[in-house]
Amino acid sequence: MSDKFLEVGKIVTVHALKGEVKIAPWCDSPDFICEFDYLYLDKKGEKTVDVEHSRVFKNMVIAKFEGYDTVEQAQTLRDKVLYISRDDVELEEGTYFIKDLIGLKVVDKDSGKEYGVIKDVFQTGANDVYTIKNGDKEYLIPAIADVVQDTDIEAGIMTITPLKGLFDDED
Questions:
Q1: Rounded CA separation 98/58 (Å)
Q2: CA 105/CA 153 separation, integer angstroms
Q3: Alpha-carbon distance values, 118 to 48, 137, 138 (Å)
Q4: Within its chain, how far is the Cα of 59 from the centroid?
Q5: What is the pLDDT of residues 106-155, one digit of tens each?
Q6: 77 neighbors 130 (Cβ within 8 angstroms)
Q7: How many CB atoms lie within 10 A of CB 159?
Q8: Hey, how many other C-beta atoms are within 10 angstroms of the C-beta on 51?
Q9: Burial class (CB in 10 A: 0-12, 13-18, 19+), 112
Q10: Which residues contact 168 (CB under 8 A, 6 or more apart)?
Q11: Residue 93 clears pLDDT 90, i.e. is over it
Q12: Using one digit for the tens of pLDDT, what is the confidence trace for 28-58?
């Protein structure tokens, strides 16, 4: 089963004098973190912090949490990882958490041939690129509609139609 709580960033330092913190985002966009009214300080969801306000500044998130009103109080949050609950996010159809893509078996739509398993996802700006590992070989496939035909997280399978040349070096 997928983890209910997902890492979205890490508090790296305090910001200014009124208890604000600077968060390094670990998600597609720092704006994503600013959408939440509260965040979790543990991966079990047992400790939350209420967000008074947040904003993006130089690709980082500056946030003020309720009850953290001084530099000293904010300093106690330094190096803490922040989490969100899957229940608090509604993904658009055809979008997935990277964590859910890692480990999917990649299979040819037409032949059923297994190409390997997704080991990493690179975000290039134009489109994501999946690293497929099969034994000691690695392949890069673009996450575009011409290639990725179906993604079934529950079944653990991604079905693709590879572009010519993607797997030509296979024996």
A1: 24
A2: 10
A3: 32, 12, 10
A4: 16
A5: 999 999 999 999 999 998 888 999 999 999 999 999 999 999 999 999 99
A6: no
A7: 18
A8: 18
A9: exposed
A10: none
A11: no
A12: 899 999 999 999 999 999 999 999 999 999 9
